[in-house]
Amino acid sequence: MTDAAPSASLADRYRAVRARTEALTAPLGPEDQMVQSMADASPTRWHRAHTTWFFETFVLEPHLKGYESPHPLYRELFNSYYNGVGAQWPRHRRGVLSRPTVAEVGAWRQRVDRAMVELLAGADDALRQIVDPLIEVGLNHEQQHQELIVTDIKHGLLQNPLDPIYDPKAAAPVAHASKAGWVELAGGLVEVGYTGDGFHFDNERPVHRVHTAPFALAGDLVTCGEFGEFIEAGGYTTPHLWLSDGWATVQAEGWRAPLYWVSDGGRWRQRTLGGRRDLDDGAPVTHVSFFEADAYARWRGKRLPTEFEWEHAARSVKPAADGTFADDGALHPVGRAAPTHGGLRHLLGEVWEWTQSAYLAYPRYRAPADALGEYNGKFMNGQRVLRGGSCATPRDHIRVSYRNFFQPDKRWQFSGIRLADDR
Amino acid sequence: MTDAAPSASLADRYRAVRARTEALTAPLGPEDQMVQSMADASPTRWHRAHTTWFFETFVLEPHLKGYESPHPLYRELFNSYYNGVGAQWPRHRRGVLSRPTVAEVGAWRQRVDRAMVELLAGADDALRQIVDPLIEVGLNHEQQHQELIVTDIKHGLLQNPLDPIYDPKAAAPVAHASKAGWVELAGGLVEVGYTGDGFHFDNERPVHRVHTAPFALAGDLVTCGEFGEFIEAGGYTTPHLWLSDGWATVQAEGWRAPLYWVSDGGRWRQRTLGGRRDLDDGAPVTHVSFFEADAYARWRGKRLPTEFEWEHAARSVKPAADGTFADDGALHPVGRAAPTHGGLRHLLGEVWEWTQSAYLAYPRYRAPADALGEYNGKFMNGQRVLRGGSCATPRDHIRVSYRNFFQPDKRWQFSGIRLADDR
Amino acid sequence: MTDAAPSASLADRYRAVRARTEALTAPLGPEDQMVQSMADASPTRWHRAHTTWFFETFVLEPHLKGYESPHPLYRELFNSYYNGVGAQWPRHRRGVLSRPTVAEVGAWRQRVDRAMVELLAGADDALRQIVDPLIEVGLNHEQQHQELIVTDIKHGLLQNPLDPIYDPKAAAPVAHASKAGWVELAGGLVEVGYTGDGFHFDNERPVHRVHTAPFALAGDLVTCGEFGEFIEAGGYTTPHLWLSDGWATVQAEGWRAPLYWVSDGGRWRQRTLGGRRDLDDGAPVTHVSFFEADAYARWRGKRLPTEFEWEHAARSVKPAADGTFADDGALHPVGRAAPTHGGLRHLLGEVWEWTQSAYLAYPRYRAPADALGEYNGKFMNGQRVLRGGSCATPRDHIRVSYRNFFQPDKRWQFSGIRLADDR
Amino acid sequence: MTDAAPSASLADRYRAVRARTEALTAPLGPEDQMVQSMADASPTRWHRAHTTWFFETFVLEPHLKGYESPHPLYRELFNSYYNGVGAQWPRHRRGVLSRPTVAEVGAWRQRVDRAMVELLAGADDALRQIVDPLIEVGLNHEQQHQELIVTDIKHGLLQNPLDPIYDPKAAAPVAHASKAGWVELAGGLVEVGYTGDGFHFDNERPVHRVHTAPFALAGDLVTCGEFGEFIEAGGYTTPHLWLSDGWATVQAEGWRAPLYWVSDGGRWRQRTLGGRRDLDDGAPVTHVSFFEADAYARWRGKRLPTEFEWEHAARSVKPAADGTFADDGALHPVGRAAPTHGGLRHLLGEVWEWTQSAYLAYPRYRAPADALGEYNGKFMNGQRVLRGGSCATPRDHIRVSYRNFFQPDKRWQFSGIRLADDR
Question: Which residues of chain A have a CB within 8 Å of the CB of B157?
């Protein structure tokens, strides 16, 4: 949870991560794995193929003698956005490809897994020095796609008025703790960025100092009940609460509540991977855009934290991974009762917390010169930073220096709100 | 082929038509059956469900006591365009529904088939007088969707650069006859419309008279070789050959050849359901829009026939079903050698022949008052009539009075060209 | 009004037509003449320039030695759609050109007028044989644009909530005659097309015969009051009254009444070139699309006439030009009382009458081989024929064989409805 | 140029600013003032009306007894984006309004000017305390629109292939100084924000501290010649130089050079308000987007400065207003020779300098509670900060704390590039 590196062997972690992907797709038939419900979301089948392509392209083809891809076109069909690798099948057309079939993708995964085992078994230290970091990126990359598999299939299945259920046990309500108050932080010249020696993404570095005024951070995430008050008070119809782009989006999209909230006889219910559920007032609100998070905060007379305030607070309290993670199987921010750490609860897990910070390079950041240089840096435009991981994030994937990012109008991720205030 | 009704019992025909649909989908896995490559085309899975919905909605629910649909939402999910039946799932979003699964759709088909057998076995004469015409429409409707299953999956599979093959035996080249000349027709006040007492669509009636000047009709369909000359001569870059809307489409879509033609090292090849094939110069050209057919005819100094000229000529020669039909399995207009009938060859089968006629009501036509009144009449705008059936049409489905219709820019159907001329 | 040619000298007619264009633009300031409110409509400034371009391009440049255009780019800037002449400034961007200014366009008009006088004064018979037909086309072309000047500036000015008034005397209400009944017509093999030896457009020929069953034609145009009953009865919310494309348009555009009707405290009023007016129940309804005309007719249990029925009826009664024309200055179909002719009233003038006929070539029609061959023929797709002229048509411009045409969803023209019925 | 307030009386400044707007529009006829060439740009006529609306709405109507607007609808027609004031005529449809005419807008301006004189003459101290800050905002607002008048009419006129010239003396080339080197700055905890007691926008406050590492700033702006090297080197076709959104824009828009550069026989020329000009290699490049500025910097192995670095450097050197400003009449960044200040030249004037900083609120910023609270704060999303003013900015309008902002793909402003580097 802090900056420490994981201890399991790389081969063991490889097996575990790859198996976890397959386990996530187990409830999904071939038809489900074909669904692409919008350009932002990809078919499950594609995620399984693309994560496999990653190891094949960056590890096996350059470093395992004799390795051959099942088909030369896979290089293009499953390339997401790496111009350095070559052409890319258009993102919004991923759903029209029925071949390779789900079974063929499964076979490809096994072929790559066998080759990876072979590579690791036969690699000398020199080769390990080269491939280990690539594999580490590949595993973290696959964990990111595990989260997208969950959010994308949620979006896909919930298009269907037949209300398909991914897992009837998902999103079951739990008991909540009583509300924590505000945590006061002195600010000053604080250090941000990944300071350990384990895996981290390039965008978490360089470590540098940022000046921050005194501030306060809410001990708890904003709940469904609290967000319901914003709706009741006319939040979605009051232009001055919104950024201009946000208000335009509210109008254009007809937003009246978070994504997946449905009005049912005058009260709000929520569609989840476990089916339709009564709204749990005490659970964290999720599937809100940055625009909604920002408007909510303004309505409360508060604001969103900067990503630096968030990281500084997190480092100060040394948070436990006390929130819901993918490993817990709820696949929903149920908000289970937990003690606070330094006054803060659920800083890790539950929902990605929108910050007010634009997603930009840290000072002196330079993207790596190789193809993986396209991983993070080129997206540093038009996005906001989210922190802390969600109920769809693997527990061992998150760090306090971890920077997630999405456009401010996106809300199909498990994104939520923690308020900050000036002091 | 003329206006005679089929002789097999309705129950036998029901079984045969329904089985034929399933046979057509046999080469397609669940993933293939999910593909929706454009709004005009529907997933195979949807076609199988919609044709089943047709019997359930129009025959079983009103007429088989105790029949119940597997799910009340199927009424909406598989309603194509019948406002009289209620709401409709949006056409362009058919591909995002993964449930009911392909297997569940298959089970639904069997459930409906069993119920239909039960209905027919138990129906008295009075009931048969009511349901027989509905069933007849349903079977013809299903045959139309069999053709769409072929054209839609062709479009879907051929999006994929992996070149999936539906049937390796499809589109195999055959021997051609030597070219026939022109057939002269005197015209005058000719009768058009369905004159028999068997099944026909409402748009084929009333029988009425049309005045036609003397004209000539080409004995053969335009071939790939002949169309290639148009391309060579710069047909696609010469604006005065085109209708204004056609020229705008050529520019917007970047058309340079018929759909599925691919330039391969300087010569044209063709993608088919049997894979990539060398162009067969002697086979009928297909996958051309009305705009291309019209421009080609203008370039040759000829024109397209009216639908009345076509029907008059067809009635004059009493054509054999000598063209390629779906029953033949080629699923491509291969243009097998055949003797002419009254100088005309392949009038039925091979390709739907574009006429210059707008798709409009025959004089005194009124759409039926019931829900099936939405079948044909409401589409009488902005479309052109095609005649004669294609290689994807069941042989026992076509008639000389049969009117097919598509917008003038569509070319994913097996549409082709037969020239006419003034005399 | 019938097929006779006008008798005034060509030079006199040239002066009169050109002057009429300028008179029409007199109430419009330079700002008004810049407005392009949609791609279908052009700025007044452009119409004045384009009609001038027509004479310059087709008459002066080829036939008046030494004539020079004010600027070589005018050839492109004011070319509407003649590919044979060269490139064209994009239609939807006509409103972004502020140069040549309105005054410069006026000066260009005078320069061309002077050159035309010079040409006509100096032309020998051989030259007159060549240029006279071109000038005749140019004058008829300019008269067509006079109508578009009116309909386009109406659309432009009425975008403005300030309600600019083109002419306060326009659209003043008048007395109506009592309603005429139906006129019965025997049909049979009737002749259509322009039979005289005066000016006519190529699309009015060749004269040919069409077979028509017995039918009846309404003596009067459909009135605002009658159309109001359709609205009252829920016509705009009843899908089965509409063609499928029409229903989609109603939904997409939110149509609830004809264009320019505004709901004012529960009743409908109408915006006109003379300002807001109470609806005149007895005046012809106008600014309806083909889709609305067709739905209205279906709701009444009637239908629209074919263009052949319309022309046959018109030839049978030898209609007077008894409707409102542009010359009358009302610029609105006020529907002044007039005796019927053979039972028909206002067959010419008031509103263009939608027919059910698609705009297609008459048998044996071939577009001229020169640049003017693009005038009519290339638009024979996707449009419906209208007949009879309107309150914005010059009285000496119309003929019973005259074929106007627009896409079925257009309603900014003065288009209206006359019902037909089977007999 | 620093944070000092202007000394002229408010009434004098009001007269001067208002007169300057009118002077700017003098070369433009009524037709020119109607042009809206894209949604981002507004007609001159609208700018003149909107700036008048500003004084009427925020000063006269609340504070001058008896003042009445010429028309109640002006409140809506000329409201840009103030939801607090009420409805707004759609931005992209500003060009379809021809009324009020240009002359009527001129008369409205005079009416408001007279009323403003009356108000200021009669106001007691209490009222002055209220209205003076509003008038100050109004004048600065009008100066901002003076810049937009220039950039918008440039975009509008240059749509026209006739190459209209706004002022033949504009953009005349000048002599340049020899290139300055890099200026080294130590960084540390630096103060940013407006520290004076004169006019400033709310977004320049609160003053706060930012930590900055040592850095260097280029003494000169990037020139056309230098940018030409980027083009020559294939900068526009090399994906890895670009942010992902930038590369997508390059592809979608077909960018190959800055806006208004035209390829003329193999070399680049430039369209200006003074007509087509040879490229001046030594003049600052302009009309580049943030994406292009960022890609150029990456290609040079440098980067763009943050807005804090820029402001810190500016405060360090106490820059002269040595660049081209609107007052100079060139209306183009001609880059006249000037001595450096602390090694920096043209920091103020010439071109707005893209920074890498997202346009976000300064810590503890709160938008004012009144309608003017919509002026700046609600746009803090998706934009990048530009600093320093341009050749279209009034010289007395700029400050070192001044924050301009545009979306990263915009390039119709006079935007340019100054490089920074790490130290």
Answer: 98-99
Whether pTM > 0.80 for this model: the answer is: yes
Nearest residue on chain A to B72, judged by CA atoms?
A: A162
**DSSP single-letter state for residue A56:** I
Backbone angles phi, psi at A282, to 5 degrees: -90, -5
Question: What mean pLDDT is predicted for residues D200-219?
Answer: 97
Flag if D378 and A244 touch (Cβ within 8 Å): yes
Q: Which residue has the tokens 């119709």?
A: D412
**Average pLDDT of chain C?**
96
| Interchain contact C236–B (C-beta under 8 A) | no
For residues B79 and B94, the answer to whether their CB atoms sit within 8 Å is no
User: Is the ipTM beyond the 0.90 threshold?
Assistant: yes
Number of domains in chain D: 2
Question: How far is B146 from B135, CA to CA, in rounded Å?
Answer: 16
Residue B168 in any domain: the answer is: no
Residue pLDDT, tens place only, B384-420: 999 999 999 999 999 999 999 999 999 999 999 999 9
pLDDT-derived band of residue D371, with 50, 70 and 90 as boundaries?
confident
Q: Do the domain assignments include residue A352? A: yes
What pLDDT shows up at residue B7?
Answer: 53
Question: Can you give the residue range of the structural domain that contains A47?
Answer: 5-157
- Whether residue C262 sits in one domain with residue C365: yes
At D7, the pLDDT band (50, 70, 90 cuts) reads: low
Let me know whether B114 and B190 are in one domain. Answer: no
Domain CATH code at residue D24? 1.20.120
Residue A416: HSE in the Cβ half-sphere, 13 Å Cα cutoff = 30
Contact A259, A311 (CB under 8 A): no
φ, ψ of residue D384 to 5 degrees: the values are -115, 150
For chain D, list the contacting chains (3+ Cβ pairs, <8 Å): A, C
- Looking at the structure, tell me whether residues B248 and B381 fall in a common domain: yes
pLDDT at D1: 42
What chain B residue is nearest to C382 in terms of C-alpha separation?
B382
A214 touches A275 (CB < 8 A):
no
Biggest CA–CA distance in chain A, Å, is 66
D189 and D132 within one domain? no
| CA of D165 vs chain C CAs: smallest distance (Å) | 11
D369 near A CB under 8 A: no
Is the CB of D152 inside 8 Å of chain C's CB atoms? no
Same domain as C379, residue C263: yes
Residue B171's nearest CA partner among B262, B274, B323 is B274
- Subunits with at least 3 CB pairs below 8 A relative to chain B? A, C
Picking from A156, A405, A143, the residue whose alpha carbon sits closest to that of residue A271 is: A156
- Least CA distance to B104: which residue of chain A? A31
Q: Which residues of chain A does B97 touch, with a Cβ-Cβ cutoff of 8 Å?
A: 35, 159-160, 162
In a domain, A13, yes or no: yes
Nearest beta carbon to residue A98 from set B32, B93, B96 = B32
| Residues counted in chain D | 423
Say whether both A89 and A234 belong to one domain.
no
Whether residues C362 and C263 share a domain: the answer is yes
Residues A204 and A321 in one domain: yes
Residue of B nearest to C378 (CA): B243
Q: Which residues of D fall within a CB distance of 8 Å from A357? A: 360
A209 contact D CB<8A: yes
CATH number, domain containing residue B223: 3.90.1580.10
Interface contact D153, partner C, CB < 8 A: no
Q: Which of A45, A99, A102 sits opposite B160 (nearest CB)?
A: A99
Q: Residue C86 — φ and ψ, nearest 5°?
A: 135, -160
Q: Say which residues have a Cβ less than 8 Å from residue C246's Cβ, sequence separation at least 6.
A: B381, C289, C290, C291, C292, C294, C295, C408, C409
With a cut of 70, say whether residue C5 has pLDDT above it.
no
Q: Considering the domain boundaries, does residue A240 fall inside one?
A: yes
Angle at C194 (CA atoms; ends C192, C196), nearest 5 degrees = 130
B366 touches chain C (CB under 8 A): no
